[in-house]
Design a protein that fits this description.
eight-stranded mixed sheet, 250 residues
């Protein structure tokens, strides 16, 4: 029996010299597929309780190099490179247009994907993330997250090289100059009210830069998408299911 909630289909994709484990829930379901990009060092199994509850569409995610079922990369990679890798996998899955949700480190990567591939991201959900990564290690302090400690949730351990390369990919990264160009993309920004890793002011900065973006501060600390999975999956589904006009008015 699989330890991964919802029993997704698991495969390995070989892209640009990387071997990446991919998980797909409700493979082939109608509607726009949702790509989820996880936080630093977190694997498919950590995200699965959230993703398995997002109904009515295909949902997929992947382990970054050196995380979970993906072996280490031979060389460091930059944010634009890993964004291109992700979209190459989307192409192979037959997903020309996708919705993207990203958490923490993955939220920064989600912004990079939307900026780098205009027209291919229909809607964007950004959780516990920032428009500027000032130093390596965003998300590591989540190991001391209040909700995680209280719930007993444990994030899998990535390899030291995997963590180092993930940190290097986003060190000094910023989306500040590019985010205003996403004004035609519906964006939902969710931030934890007690997040001491990426405080809610980072989400406010994102919302201020994207015309029409909706910002919501929700219960929980940094790992709220996992510790409050039922509520967050419901909110994500509601946002993705809104008619275009309703989103524009949100």
């Amino acid at each position: 029996m699989s330890r991964i909630s919802g029993r997704p289909t698991i495969s390995t994709e070989h892209v640009y010299g990387l071997s990446l484990r991919v998980a797909r829930w409700r493979e082939g379901a109608p509607g726009t597929p949702l790509l989820f990009l996880n936080g630093i060092g977190a694997d498919i199994a950590a995200a699965a309780p959230l993703l398995a509850q997002i109904d009515g569409r295909e949902v997929w995610t992947l382990d970054m190099p050196g995380v979970g079922g993906s072996p280490d990369a031979l060389l460091p990679y930059a944010a634009p490179t890993i964004a291109a890798v992700v979209m190459e996998i989307a192409d192979r899955l037959g997903h020309k247009v996708i919705d993207v949700a990203g958490f923490s480190w993955g939220g920064a990567l989600a912004q990079q994907v939307a900026i780098q591939f205009p027209g291919r991201v229909r809607r964007l959900v950004l959780m516990a993330t920032t428009p500027t990564v000032g130093a390596p290690g965003i998300g590591w302090a989540a190991l001391l997250d209040d909700d995680m400690l209280a719930s007993g949730l444990k994030l899998p351990t990535a390899t030291p090289l995997g963590l180092a390369y993930q940190s290097m990919a986003m060190a000094g990264w910023t989306s500040v100059a590019a985010l205003p160009h996403l004004k035609g993309t519906p964006v939902l920004v969710l931030m934890g009210e007690r997040d001491g890793v990426v405080p809610a002011c980072h989400g406010q900065a994102i919302a201020d830069l994207i015309d029409g973006a909706a910002l919501e501060v929700v219960p929980g600390s940094h790992l709220f998408p996992f510790t409050h999975a039922a509520a967050i999956s419901t909110r994500i589904s509601a946002f993705l299911d809104q008619p275009e006009r309703a989103q524009a008015a949100a």
